[in-house]
């Protein structure tokens, strides 16, 4: 008789994975979580809001996971997956509430998969949200042997009257950029095309460690800034770089912006990638170039915002103005 396992799907390995990851998900449990993973649905109670608006976002780690699998380092790319979703909902002033992940592969290895989910849980802890569910899909014939894909879904909440929507942005306001931790999670198809030697070093640090440095999760500092200042707009600097993502914070289309060239340091990894044959135009269109989150504030508050960011350990720079 032919079994499901003969077709390439091992149910027992999936059950083993659930047992392994429960210890990670329980660490992320927050006040609103009602049930544990394993149910058909995840239950969450929104607390402490008068007129809550839910803000949701879905994203993944992109092809960065292919590099993580190739280099056999599985425990950080989950942070990237969380960051890509959390940083997006954060752009509307939303506090991340909970996260669900989706892990797909050709053949499930519970040891590898649990390390990937361990990274997801670590990202949730950084973001202050709960990992309350997800899906693991073993799909032989769809994915190549040894391949994994990782995506996620985040839900955040903001008071209706406190949504960051760009409506108050005016000409003369300024743009502040918060430093990235490196390449983050965009442009890795291009990275993998041009990089041939992952044993190389940049300033004494292995290239593979630099490339797999997790995406920064900006929730802790941005939520604090929103409480203290009038943050008029926020932009998560992902694919498309500064030039394509900053306009997404504008509510009024006639607005534009001017960036100050040389206003912040470009990390060595980007200079290295450009040296491999990528044009400057392609670099700024593909990568964050050292800025992971941009925010718009009034010129009057800009010095205080910068002081708060830098004093809190988040290197930040005045990178431009609204025109």
Number of distinct beta strands: 11
Name of the CATH architecture of the largest domain: 2-Layer Sandwich
Order of helices and strands: HEHHEHEEEHEEHHEHEHHEHE
Text of the CATH class of the largest domain: Alpha Beta
Unreliable parts: none
The gross shape turns out to be: globular
Q: How far is the N terminus from the C terminus?
A: 71 Å
Describe the structure.
- The model has no long low-confidence stretch (mean pLDDT 95).
- The strands form 3 sheets. A 5-stranded antiparallel β-sheet has the order 8-10-5-11-9.
- The longest helix has 18 residues, at 110-127.
- The chain folds into 2 domains: 11-162, PurM-like, N-terminal domain (60s Ribosomal Protein L30, Chain: A); 174-322, Phosphoribosyl-aminoimidazole Synthetase, Chain A, domain 2 (Alpha-Beta Complex).
- α1 (11-27) runs parallel beside α4 (110-127) and α3 (77-90) runs parallel beside α4.
- It is globular.
- The protein is built from 11 helices and 11 strands.
- The chain is an alpha+beta fold and 323 residues long.
- 43% of the residues are buried.
């Amino acid at each position: 008789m032919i079994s499901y396992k003969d077709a390439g799907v091992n149910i027992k390995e999936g059950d083993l994975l659930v047992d392994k990851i429960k210890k990670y998900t329980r660490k992320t449990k927050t006040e609103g979580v009602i049930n544990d993973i394993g149910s058909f649905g995840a239950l969450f109670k929104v607390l402490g809001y008068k007129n809550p608006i839910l803000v949701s976002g879905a994203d993944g780690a992109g092809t960065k996971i292919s590099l993580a699998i190739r280099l056999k380092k599985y425990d950080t790319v989950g942070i990237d997956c969380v960051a890509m979703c959390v940083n997006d909902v954060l752009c509307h002033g939303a506090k991340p509430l909970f996260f669900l992940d989706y892990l797909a592969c050709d053949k499930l290895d519970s040891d590898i998969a649990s390390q990937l989910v361990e990274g997801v849980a670590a990202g949730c802890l950084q973001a202050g949200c709960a990992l309350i569910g997800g899906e693991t899909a073993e799909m032989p014939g769809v994915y190549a042997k040894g391949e994994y894909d990782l995506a996620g879904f985040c839900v955040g909440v903001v008071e209706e009257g406190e949504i960051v929507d760009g409506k108050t942005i005016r000409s003369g306001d300024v743009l502040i950029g918060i430093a990235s931790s490196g390449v983050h999670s965009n442009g890795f198809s291009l990275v993998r095309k041009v990089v041939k030697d992952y044993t190389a070093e940049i300033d004494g640090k292995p290239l593979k460690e630099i490339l797999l440095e997790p995406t920064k999760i900006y929730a802790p500092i941005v939520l604090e800034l929103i409480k203290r200042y009038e943050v008029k707009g926020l932009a998560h600097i992902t694919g498309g770089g500064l030039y394509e993502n900053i306009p997404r914070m504008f509510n009024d289309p006639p607005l534009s912006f001017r960036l100050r060239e040389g206003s912040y340091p470009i990390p060595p990894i980007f200079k290295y990638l450009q040296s491999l044959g990528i044009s400057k135009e392609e670099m700024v269109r593909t990568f964050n170039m050292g800025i992971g989150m941009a925010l718009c504030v009034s010129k009057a508050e800009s010095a205080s915002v910068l002081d708060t960011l830098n004093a809190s350990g988040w290197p930040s720079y005045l990178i431009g103005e609204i025109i």
